[in-house]
From TrEMBL:
Annotated family: Belongs to the LysR transcriptional regulatory family.
Lineage, uppermost ranks: Bacteria, Pseudomonadati, Pseudomonadota, Betaproteobacteria, Burkholderiales
Name of the protein in question: LysR family transcriptional regulator
Pfam family, one: LysR_substrate
Keyword field: DNA-binding, Transcription, Transcription regulation
């Protein structure tokens, strides 16, 4: 049995909803489709479809296998495309969207290094903390912080996201140091406008989530502004280590609630599709992964 061919037939039958529909789409005879599907079921050791005279429906095993088959077929297509590209040099304009604070603090050197390696690529970078529509607005890829809400995008992690709860020594001297997340309700907290949980901060300890509604006299849609306010003693800040890691290392911001883990996540590169991925997008995403790694430079000394 040609497993690759049989998997393509299985996926086409599932998409068409009938054996005859798949046969027409693949220019095969009905008996050929029936035979390949039977051979595939024998190979996996499970019935993939429930059949009746009127309808064809996936079994539970078939539904699970369908997703794996789709991924395998995409991977095979990607491998063929990569082989076809060979050593082709990335070229053309690469349009990138990135969050303001992350890009200003960490993306510049990476762009310079990538440009030196791939001089035929022209980099067009737009900074914005809003979530852009990559397809409608013509971006090749975007860098996203935290949870990816659009399931239609391909997301690849380029670095971990570490969140730090901190305050300046001057603020703590005047207002005291919180001992539990609940204490934060009595403190001045500097709020990031695009925070997914709005004015609620969440922490974890021993498998339990602790959520607290925070209040304060400042909210902003830029982490660097909140950092500056925190350094001036205005309040408590919850921001990524890529913004305030240096301040923690210098002692100008003091970490709080060390026994509680602030909700974290990852930093991703996202792009619309893995099919026919251009060399410029593929090499840039690979470069970001290579450059940042599991422990990026902004986490140096903060991760045990």
């Amino acid at each position: 049995m040609d497993l690759f061919h049989a998997m393509k037939v299985f996926v086409k039958v599932a998409d068409a909803g009938s054996l005859s529909g798949a046969a027409r789409a693949l220019a095969l005879s009905n008996p050929s489709v029936t035979r390949l599907l039977a051979e595939l079921e024998s190979h996996v050791g499970a019935r993939l479809f429930n059949r009746s005279t009127r309808r064809l429906s996936l079994t539970e095993a078939g539904a699970a296998y369908l997703e794996r088959c789709r991924q395998v077929l995409l991977d095979i297509d990607d491998a063929a495309l990569a082989a076809g590209r060979g050593a082709a040099e990335p070229s053309g304009t690469l349009r990138i969207n990135a969050p303001v604070s992350f890009a200003v603090n960490h993306l510049g050197p990476v762009l310079a290094q990538y440009a030196a390696r791939y001089p035929q690529v022209h980099l067009d970078v737009t900074l914005s903390d809003r979530v852009v529509d990559l397809v409608d607005e013509g971006y090749d890829l975007a860098i996203r912080i935290g949870r990816i809400r659009d399931s239609s995008l391909v997301a690849r992690q380029i670095a971990p996201l570490r969140m730090l709860l901190c305050a300046a020594p001057s603020y703590l001297a005047s207002h005291g140091t919180p001992a539990t997340p609940r204490d934060l309700a009595q403190h001045v907290c500097l709020h990031y406008s695009y925070w997914s949980t709005r004015d609620e901060w969440q922490f974890a300890r021993d498998g339990k989530t602790h959520a607290v509604r925070i209040r304060g006299s400042l909210q902003a849609n830029n982490g660097d502004l909140l950092r500056a306010a925190a350094l001036a003693g205005m309040g408590i800040i919850l921001q990524p280590s890529f913004i305030i890691g240096d301040d923690v290392r210098r002692g100008t911001l003091i970490p709080l609630l060390p026994d509680y883990q602030a909700a974290a996540g990852a930093i991703h590169a996202v792009y619309p599709s893995r099919r026919y991925l251009s060399a410029k997008v593929r090499t840039f995403v690979d470069f970001l992964v290579e450059r940042f790694g599991a422990v990026p430079e902004w986490d140096a000394g903060l991760v045990g």
